[in-house]
Design brief:
alpha+beta; 2 domains; three-stranded antiparallel sheet; elongated
């Protein structure tokens, strides 16, 4: 990716490597200014390179999408398509049925839809509020769906941000 050319180099044995652990400090400043980006909801057919081509004119700007959304590992931080998600759940829990089943131990319990509680609190009749079980399937689904809302930096600011990153890494 093009933006790695700005990253500092480190010695690794007899080789020189790019220090990918360095993160630019301007990321927070960029994301605080809502006029520099807009929100986007990822669909099943979206891939980072396709979005970069669509919004920035080429796939080499994929880094801007990763950078704006603090995506360090695209395989883990990008949402799974529905078909891949179902395969993931099957491999992790044995089957979709087991992941959704009320017969299985739920992943966790909630009080009033937002507070995680233990099983004893869930069963305690003296505790007031709406108590619900969250299946492993629901838990995994919510995690995956939360990754769909991303920020895309407006193309007008992309070259400026690229220059600022280059200057930051030079210092």
């Amino acid at each position: 990716m093009k933006h790695f050319e700005f990253y500092p180099k480190i010695e690794y044995g007899d080789n020189q490597a790019v220090n990918i652990l360095v993160r630019g400090k301007i990321r927070d400043a960029i994301l605080e200014k809502a006029v520099l980006y807009y929100k986007y909801t990822i669909t099943d057919s979206d891939r980072p390179d396709i979005l970069a081509t669509k919004y920035y004119g080429n796939p080499t700007s994929t880094w801007a999408i990763y950078y704006a959304n603090n995506i360090l590992d695209p395989r883990h931080d990008w949402p799974l398509s529905d078909s891949v998600f179902y395969e993931y759940v099957k491999s992790k829990y044995g089957s979709i049925y087991k992941a959704q089943s009320e017969l299985e131990e739920p992943h966790h319990y909630l009080l009033d839809g937002k507070y995680i509680i233990d099983k004893e609190t869930y069963l305690d009749l003296a505790v007031e509020g709406v108590k619900t079980k969250v299946s492993a399937f629901e838990y995994e689904w919510d995690l995956n769906e939360a990754k769909r809302e991303i920020k895309i930096i407006d193309v007008v600011y992309l070259s400026q941000i690229t220059n600022e990153l280059e200057n930051l890494f030079k210092s």
